[in-house]
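To illustrate the input format used throughout this study, we show a single complete record. The first block contains the structure-token representation of the backbone; no residue identities are included at this stage. The design step must infer an amino acid for every position from geometry alone.
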């Protein structure tokens, strides 16, 4: 049997989330004519960014990071020469929590298996988490629970995690929304993005030497 393409596999996830009546956020989605937000970008991206959950703009459009935090993310990507089309951006929780509250553990547990499948389909070499919720979940998921510390300590550092398809470099970052209210965080995020750039360049160079 021919293997399903990445797009087909990702569409299957979209359809399952679309019909996720078990979620406590499903009714809220329907009442507000919101969309679930699955992800956006290249299905062959070397780097995947993982945020927390969609806000209102995202839920109305079905696209991740399309509000103010998304603009900040675009600026940070541009600062290292990347476009959205070069990367893949998603969240742990695929539906908007009421009134922009933080995701609760039950929601993370319900939606995380979809994120795990997205990771296995896209197979990024680098995962950058945005904010402490995705940081905590991904550290645990990639076998790095014992390395967990507050985001103020871990941001911008790199770790090697395990996936079914091999090793992945994990870089925890602050959520870009923090830079909207705190100017010095903008500088911190910009510096941390330079580390991403270095790691992506070294991956590309290693691929060339292997050929
Ligand atoms: N914040 C997130 O964590 N994700 C989005 O998609 C938008 C804002």
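Output of the design step:
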């Amino acid at each position: 049997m021919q293997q399903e393409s990445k797009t087909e596999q990702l569409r299957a996830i979209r359809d399952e989330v679309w019909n996720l009546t078990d979620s406590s956020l499903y009714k809220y989605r329907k009442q507000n004519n919101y969309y679930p937000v699955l992800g956006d970008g290249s299905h062959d991206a070397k780097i995947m960014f993982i945020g927390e959950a969609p806000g209102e703009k995202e839920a109305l459009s079905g696209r991740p990071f399309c509000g103010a935090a998304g603009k900040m993310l675009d600026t940070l990507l541009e600062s290292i020469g990347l476009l959205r089309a070069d990367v893949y951006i998603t969240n742990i929780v695929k539906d908007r929590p009421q009134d922009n509250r933080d995701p609760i553990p039950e929601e993370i547990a319900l939606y995380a298996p979809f994120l795990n499948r997205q990771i296995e389909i896209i197979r990024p070499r680098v995962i950058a988490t945005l904010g402490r919720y995705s940081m905590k979940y991904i550290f645990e998921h990639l076998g790095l629970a014992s390395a967990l510390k507050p985001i103020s300590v871990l941001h911008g550092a790199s770790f090697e995690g395990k996936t079914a398809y091999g090793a992945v470099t994990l870089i925890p970052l602050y959520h870009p929304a923090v830079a909207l209210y705190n100017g010095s965080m903008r500088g911190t995020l910009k510096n941390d993005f330079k580390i991403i750039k270095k790691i992506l360049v070294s991956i590309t160079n290693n691929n060339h030497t292997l050929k």
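Structural context for interpreting the output: The longest helix spans residues 183-210. The chain has one domain: 3-210.
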